Amino acid sequence: MELDDVLPNSHHVTRQSRWVDAPPEAVWDALHEVKLSGLPVTVALGAVRFLPVLLSGKGLGRLRDRPFLEALPVPVLASSAPESVVFGGVLQAWRLGGGEQPPALDAEDLQRWIRPGWVKAVMDFRLTPVRGGTELSSETRVLATDPTTRRRFALYWRFVQPGSTAIRWEVLTAVQVRAEARAA
């Protein structure tokens, strides 16, 4: 599954990639092993972002040390080892308390979702064999379901996007270090 299969158009897109001196299988394993405890920037930015949720008592389950991929705010839509994993769902991230509980949607339901007041968010990690190693890339796409939500999310994204990008770079770096150590 490709991001275009779920969300071909978007209002916001970020992309990061890096070459890893390891085969795709080692990179895949490392990607699934990276834990929040090994990502200090991610933990710090997540704590700041989710402070209102944590103070309300709704987000305590996110504090456990678990793999990064299991802590994402949207569920896995498709996984094809060792090539790609695609996540997606609907969010109200700009709301301080986290917004309404999002419905569980599969890729087809997410593609058709049009209820106002939500953003559709998809993200992938893709592994491509290249130059004797692996290109590990991540792309995030967001599409608002209505003009009011688009404006609200754009303001939120102006402040959050640099941190979101920093988190992806930290994850890609942690995966690279782990995979290269395993392959050495």
- Low-confidence spans: pLDDT under 50, at least 5 residues? none
What is the CATH domain class?
A: Alpha Beta
CATH topology title:
Alpha-D-Glucose-1,6-Bisphosphate, Chain A, domain 4
What is the CATH architecture term? 2-Layer Sandwich
CA-atom Rg in angstroms: 16 Å
Report on this structure:
- It comes from Geodermatophilus sabuli.
- This is Polyketide cyclase / dehydrase and lipid transport.
- The protein has 184 residues and is α+β, with helices and mostly antiparallel strands.
- The protein has one domain: Alpha-D-Glucose-1,6-Bisphosphate, Chain A, domain 4, CATH 3.30.530.20.
- It contains six helices and five strands, in the order αβαααββαββα.
- A five-stranded antiparallel beta sheet has the order 1-5-4-3-2.
- A hairpin with a 3-residue loop joins β2 (76-80) and β3.
- α2 (24-33) crosses α6 (147-183) and α3 runs antiparallel to α6.
- The longest helix is centred in the last third of the chain and has 37 residues, at 147-183.
- It is globular.
Features:
single chain; 184 residues; alpha+beta; Alpha-D-Glucose-1,6-Bisphosphate, Chain A, domain 4; five-stranded antiparallel beta sheet; 6 helices; 40% helix; globular; Polyketide cyclase / dehydrase and lipid transport
Sum this structure up briefly.
With 184 residues, this protein is of the alpha+beta class.
